[in-house]
Structures are given as structure tokens and as C-alpha cells.
Specification:
- Helices cover 72% and strands 0% of the residues.
- The chain contains ten helices and no strands.
């Protein structure tokens, strides 16, 4: 019973609409009416700029970490590693669902990538760093946040199933579920990537202009 209550609390933590609250407080707008209509950090960068985008990204990451940390309220999980890891994953996934379908924002939230990262940092930081490494590399090469998020998420089951060859079934299932969630929430982005219509984020423009001038 206590586990269920904590999982519900994790969902409520994930449901805190950080981008919506900040957009209304500092800009007097509903961020869901602008850009992609998404409450994620990427749209926050696009609509409110890098300062507030960064703040929202950090807060969304912290939501995942805080939700996972709820296991501390049950002493049993402090001394049972396998059960603790399974419970942490359940708490984290509940927070991610809260971010994607927030009860405090009419169930219209973000794509859950930052909250997923926070959850993963709390559950398995080394694997999380591998996923972040792939994300950063792809973002540097392409400037597509969506493609970077998708490939970073795919790196999770690759790391768990093959690089570290994790034998625990629940951890394997967890890795596949996370990758599946990211791919499903990026369906529209995948369509735009295929059509060549996906927006790039405005970073490394100097590099791109330099390459273009060299070709000319």
C-alpha cells in the first residue's frame, strides 16, 4: 500500500508543469500555444530563450531524480538492492508519465526526455552518461534535438543489453520501455525528419556558415 502511494506521489511530482508555470509567471503566456505546443525544454528554449529553457530543463531533470528518491521513505528498500532498483524504476516511470500526461495541465505535457534523464541519473548514472554522450554527439553533428533524443534513448537498451550485458530481466524491460516511450512521443518529429522538415536548434551557426563559405 505504501509503495502505491509513493508511486502516485511520483506521478504528481512529474505532473508539475514547470514550463507552463514559468511561461505564465514571467511571460504571461501558455507555452502550449506557441512553438510546437509542447511543455518540454526544447520548446521552452525556442519560445522563452536559453535562460528559461535551461532552468526548465534542470527542473524537469530534478523531477525525475526527486521521484526516484522517494524510495528513502521505505526503510526496507535501503538494504535490498534488487528490490530497491525495481522500485526506483517504477517511481521514475511514474514521474515520466506524469510529465507526459500531467494532471495539473489537462494531461497535455512534454515528451518526458529531461525527466527520463533525471530518473536514469538516479537509477544508473553511468548508463545515463553514455546516453547523454550520444545525445550531445548527435546534437553537435545534426542540431536536431529530436534525433538526438531518440538515438540517446536507443543507447539505453544497447548499453544494458549488450555493452554491460545486464542479466536482470526487470532492468532489460525497463531499458526497452524507456526507448519505446521516447520513440512514441517523437512520432511527429520522426515524420518531419523523414520529410526533411524538422527544425534545427540555433546553435553552432558559426560552424555551419563557415562550412558553407568554404564550399563556395
Amino acid at each position: 500500500m505504501k509503495e502505491i502511494l509513493l508511486i502516485l506521489l511520483a506521478y504528481l511530482i512529474g505532473s508539475i508543469p514547470t514550463a507552463l508555470l514559468i511561461s505564465k509567471k514571467f511571460f504571461g503566456i501558455d507555452i502550449r500555444d506557441y512553438g510546437s505546443g509542447n511543455m518540454g525544454a526544447t520548446n521552452a528554449f525556442r519560445v522563452m530563450g536559453p535562460k528559461f529553457g535551461t532552468i526548465i530543463m534542470i527542473l524537469d531533470i530534478l523531477k525525475g531524480m526527486l521521484a526516484v528518491g522517494l524510495f528513502y521513505f521505505l526503510p526496507y528498500y535501503l538494504t535490498n538492492e534488487l528490490d530497491r532498483t525495481n522500485f526506483m524504476m517504477a517511481l521514475g516511470l511514474s514521474a515520466v508519465m506524469g510529465h507526459i500526461f500531467p494532471i495539473f495541465a489537462n494531461y497535455k505535457g512534454g515528451k518526458g526526455v529531461a525527466t527520463l534523464l533525471g530518473m536514469l541519473l538516479a537509477v544508473q548514472p553511468l548508463v545515463a552518461l553514455c546516453c547523454v554522450g550520444v545525445f550531445v554527439l548527435v546534437l553537435y553533428l545534426t542540431r536536431y534535438v529530436s534525433l538526438s533524443s531518440i538515438l540517446g534513448a536507443i543507447m539505453l537498451p544497447v548499453s544494458v543489453l549488450w555493452i554491460w550485458n545486464e542479466h536482470e530481466l526487470s532492468y532489460r524491460i525497463f531499458a526497452l520501455i524507456v526507448a519505446f516511450i521516447v520513440i512514441i512521443t517523437h512520432q511527429k518529429n520522426i515524420g518531419r525528419l523523414i520529410r526533411g522538415a524538422e527544425n534545427r536548434i540555433p546553435i553552432l551557426k558559426h560552424r555551419d556558415k563557415k562550412k558553407s563559405s568554404n564550399r563556395n
